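We keep the chain:
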Amino acid sequence: MQEFRIADQTYESRLLIGTAGYPSFQIMTEAIAASGAEIATVAMRRVRFSDTSEENLFAILREHGMTILPNTAGCFTAKDAILTAQLAREALETSLIKLEVIGDEQTLFPDVEQLITAAEQLVEDGFTVLPYCNDDPITCKKLEDIGCAAVMPLGAPIGSGMGIRNPYNIQIIRDLVQIPLIIDAGVGTASDAAIAMELGCDGVLLNTAVAKSHRPVLMAEAMKKAVEAGRAAYLAGRIPRKLYATASSPIDGIID
């Protein structure tokens, strides 16, 4: 299959996974391993660098060859997100940043105005920016034009497990942007991940669907397979939808 590239780095897995909300540290590490993911996102707001367990998190992720993707979760202004990104770069020695600027505490929808402002500043400052955004084609195109390395529209509200609520917008975004398109938020189960990939997304980022499932390690394995299957189906090309049946076997030579 075609390689998955973000900026100047290539990956075999198209599944990106979060590190929050697992029943235990051990289950988290087992689930990440089962997922086959090569990129793990960590919210900088919950990290205490003086805490040994958090230091172990980074050590273990690096030990497994994971790319650490710090994110600005919990930021409500461009200024706050930019500061968090700068702290992440200094602490983790990476220019990668998953940019989140939230506009509402209940829905956790992005604040588009603040997001674009932060993205412009961070790109100018040399960051590789992966913005979490609405499933709005125009916003995604603007983020591409700014110089973001990918766009990461939500499939549904964060943690909702509602799946891809507007597949038509995702298809339009796929047509509009040339940079990687990664579904971020809303995935609830493996079929949601497969649908995202069948729509032409380059990857899926998820956390809650695995961390809060009854068996996180098994769900992580299911997500791995779903992403792979969805990508293969997209490349293979589905048959057209038809209202009426079309015989799959020839009718020539049937018995009168």
Remarks:
- The mean pLDDT is 91.
